[in-house]
Specification:
One of its GO terms (molecular function) is calcium ion binding. This is PsbP C-terminal domain-containing protein. By secondary structure, this protein is an alpha+beta fold. It has one domain: 3-Layer(aba) Sandwich (Protein Transport Mog1p, Chain A). Helix content is 19%, strand content 34%. It is built from four helices and eleven strands; from the N terminus they run H-E-E-H-E-E-E-E-E-H-E-E-E-E-H. A hairpin with a 6-residue loop joins strand 3 and strand 4. Helix 2 packs across helix 3. It is globular.
């Protein structure tokens, strides 16, 4: 199928640029290439052995899209399937994908959805807003089931950080910037959600700045874990942080009782 807009071609270039090596383990899939208003057409594995919310956080950093235009007004979006709502810049396009994950410590065998919003026409390939929805077991009725906000933030960053290889003799002498690195900036609980801010950088790429909200909800059938992540290059964050803060304020998971 031919791309509907110039942005689809840019997404294809992103897929080639952002391949990563991951440990062999049980795997789930997330979309890394999608055309606006169409389902994702290419899939890339991420580890399934981590907790559901850790893989949701990793999914967010593996969805490279394009740079934002902060002057655009926010337009509400209501998700009928999983019951969350969010407002995103009106000129952005939406891509979506579904992936069936294997059962692990926290997740149950059910589809995991990823929805992303991104602007068109900017070649920097750095900014997007992503919501990842993952099934969790019925006994997980609060975020406390995953530890405190600080513990969640520490675990999320630890799942992506490889900087220990720069210090461990077993890995030999490696120069700075040669391994994948993640750094926690802060984590807290707010409005019954976890807020996590961190940076992430892959070798030979610019450092990214990410802000996430994590919530539990029930879509009327099963309990779901909702992870909203907004990201951009670290060098762009001072220009994008107000836009990101505005988007995060609009996010509402379903109000149904768990």
């Amino acid at each position: 199928m031919q791309p509907a807009t110039p942005g689809a071609g840019a997404c294809e270039r992103c897929c080639q640029r952002h391949q990563i090596c991951l440990p062999r383990s049980r795997q789930v899939l997330v979309p890394v290439r999608a055309q606006p208003q169409q389902e994702a057409t290419h899939w890339q594995p991420v580890p399934g052995r981590r907790e559901a919310l850790l893989s949701a956080g990793l999914a967010a950093v593996l969805l490279p899209i394009q740079a934002a235009h902060a002057e655009e007004p926010l337009q509400p979006f209501d998700d009928e399937l999983d019951g969350f709502s969010i407002a995103v810049p009106s000129g952005w396009s939406k891509a979506k994908g579904d992936a069936v994950g294997k059962k692990n410590k926290f997740a149950v065998p059910s589809s995991r959805r990823a929805l992303s919003w991104f602007p068109e026409g900017d070649p920097t390939l750095s900014t997007n807003v992503t919501v990842v929805v993952t099934g969790v077991g019925p006994d997980y009725t609060s975020l406390g089931s995953f530890g405190t906000a600080e513990q969640f933030g520490d675990n999320l960053v630890a799942s992506m950080d490889r900087s220990y290889q720069l210090r461990a003799p077993a890995f030999g002498s490696r120069p700075a910037g040669s391994v994948q690195e993640a750094r926690l900036i802060g984590a807290k609980e707010t409005s019954k959600m976890y807020y996590v801010e961190y940076t992430f950088r892959k070798p030979s790429e610019q450092e990214r700045h990410l802000v996430s909200l994590v919530a539990l909800g029930n879509n009327g059938r099963v309990n779901r874990l909702y992870t909203l992540t907004a990201q951009c290059y670290e060098s762009h964050f001072s220009q994008q942080k107000d836009l990101f803060a505005g988007i995060l304020k609009t996010f509402k998971p379903p109000s149904r009782r768990l």
